[in-house]
Amino acid sequence: MPPEETNITRRGFIKAFNSLLAATGVAVILSPIIAFFWPKNLEEVPSEPVAVGPDGSISNGESKKVRYGRYPALVINLPELGLVAYSAVCTHFACIVDYNTSTHEIECPCHEGYFNSKDGSVISGPPPFPLESIPVYVEDGTIYIGGET
Ligand code: FES
User: Fold this and answer.
1) Could you tell me the sign of the dihedral formed by the alpha carbons of 140, 141, 146, 149, in that order?
2) 142-145/105-108 β-pairing
3) Do 141 and 127 touch, CB atoms closer than 8 A?
4) CATH class name, domain 50-145
5) What is the mean pLDDT of the chain?
6) CB distance 85 to 99 below 8 Å
7) How far apart are CA 42 and CA 70, in angstroms?
8) Domains of the chain by residue range
């Protein structure tokens, strides 16, 4: 049985391969330019305050995670202190922390890091630094984090 013939010529293959290389080169050059001008919502730390929700939307002893620039933030309504906010990014290896409503501590699930919810300081575990504190305030019935206070 004779082998099947294909319709691809050597010249056609080289032309297609050159086009692919040219497209790859253009993508490599344009990617950093596009990334530089990408929208503001990917800012590391937003320059403007971020709305969390209506005042009272976080019950006493509860928490809420919100997007804060490129990373999430953890807003907690502490039983004695009221509203506090921290970066939800663990200072060890950048896992996302969570608030434990029973112990009132902030926990990192990756390597058992524990933070004090009153000031973000490290209680135990491998995190080398406290959680980054974020200003939180209520204005016109809305909770905001970040920005000018
Ligand atoms: S990443 Fe949080 S304790 Fe390791």
Assistant:
1) positive
2) unpaired
3) no
4) mainly beta
5) 91
6) no
7) 5
8) 6-38, 50-145
**How confident is the model at residue 32, as a pLDDT?**
87
Cα separation of 52 and 44, whole Å? 18
> Ligand 1 pocket: which residues have CB below 6 Å?
90, 92-93, 95, 108, 110-111, 113, 125-127
pTM of the predicted structure, to 2 decimals: 0.72
Q: How far is the CA of 18 from the centre of ligand 1 (A)?
A: 47
* Lookup result for tokens 């503001």: 40
d(CA 72, CA 127) in angstroms, rounded, equals 18
- Model pLDDT for residues 26-49, shown as the tens digit of each residue: 999 999 888 777 765 567 788 899
Q: Name 137's bridge partners.
A: 144
Position in ligand 1 atom list of the atom nearest CA 127: 3
Q: 3-state DSSP helix/strand/coil percent for the chain, to nearest 5?
A: 20, 35, 45
Helix (H, G, I), strand (E, B) or coil at 119: coil
Structure tokens at 53: 């929700």
Give, using CA atoms, the residue closest to atom 1 of ligand 1: 93
